[in-house]
Amino acid sequence: MDAASIIAKLQTTMPAVDFTPDPATDRPTVVVPREHLVDTCRVLRDQPVFLYGVLTDVTAVDRWPAEPRFEVVYHLLSVDRTSLLRLKVRVPGEDAHVPTIKGIWASAGWLEREVWDLFGVVFDGHDDLRRLVMPEDWDGHPLRKDYPVQITMKPKVYEPLQLTEQEFRANIAADRTVRGGSKKTV
Description:
Blueprint: H1 3-13, E1 20-21, E2 29-31, H2 37-46, E3 54-62, E4 70-78, E5 83-91, E6 97-99, H3 108-119, E7 122-124, H4 165-179
Parallel strand pairs: 2-5, 6-7
Antiparallel strand pairs: 1-2, 3-4, 4-5
């Protein structure tokens, strides 16, 4: 099913929504207005004509300096129909908010946290937006195109980066003991 067919079927249930196809070579891609994202996802999951029951990924694209700045991208899978679908929601940089779809697909919780952590797009209604990839005390969102490349932060070291020869030998011996291997020394 191509993007135009999917949009035609979506508009039978949601006639007031302005869906647009987005050119793509690998899978149908539909641009969804952000205020209709949750309802669209629910229809795609629940309607027998679609049955996109699996959310495989949520990511984002920073199109800076263009506006709308961000595209939040959702990849869906219909196991019954063995088909893939990409949804895009375009979000302005000054108002980088999208409603959460965690209530539709629970797996969206972690994926939305990652997008927030790296791009700074806020998922309204998400109950646990906190750092997932970057340290808790990190400033900014490193996958934004305007994020400074040269970081003037002091390195944070919590463990020694080098081992002494004795520590290395002890670690190898402990590993061999756990694995039930030879007790030979290194």
